């Protein structure tokens, strides 16, 4: 693992980035290799935790608060 990240190609292309994930803490990631106009696209936001956006999704689907609460309480959704 460390030997792979220490490869000279990663240093030459500035491909390894360090960030802080909101749930997992400090982590390294490999950046997108392609550059356009000398710039590489920024990494997207971190993946959500299990159930992190459940309420927002159900709300967008048109479920009212009472129905969402019942689904959460009965374990149908998390």
Describe this structure in a few short sentences:
With 78 residues, this protein is α+β, with helices and mostly antiparallel strands.
- Overall pLDDT metric: 89
- Cα-atom radius of gyration: 20 Å
Question: Which H/E pattern describes the elements?
Answer: HHEEHH
The CA-CA distance between the termini, in Å, is 34 Å
Q: Main sheet?
A: 2 strands, antiparallel
Shape: elongated
The percent range for strand residues is 15-25%
Low-confidence stretches: none
Residues in helix, % = 25-40%
Name the strands of the widest sheet in spatial order.
Answer: 1-2
Count of alpha/pi helices:
4
How many strands?
A: 2
Which structural class do you get from the secondary structure elements?
A: alpha+beta
Produce the secondary structure layout:
Elements: H1 2-5, H2 8-13, E1 16-21, E2 25-30, H3 54-60, H4 65-73
Antiparallel strand pairs: 1-2
Describe the structure in your own words.
The protein has four helices and two strands; from the N terminus they run ααββαα. The protein has 78 residues and is of the alpha+beta class. It has a two-stranded antiparallel ribbon with strand order 1-2. It is elongated and about 55 Å long. It starts with a helix and ends in a 5-residue tail after the last helix. The mean pLDDT is 89.
Give the key terms.
single chain, 15% strand, elongated, alpha+beta
């Amino acid at each position: 693992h460390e030997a792979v990240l220490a490869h000279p190609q990663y240093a030459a292309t500035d491909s390894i980035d360090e960030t802080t994930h909101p749930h997992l803490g400090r982590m390294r990631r490999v950046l997108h290799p392609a550059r356009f106009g000398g710039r590489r696209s920024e990494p997207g936001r971190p993946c959500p935790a299990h159930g992190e956006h459940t309420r927002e999704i159900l709300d967008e689907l048109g479920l009212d608060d009472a129905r969402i609460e019942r689904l959460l309480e009965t374990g149908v959704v998390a």
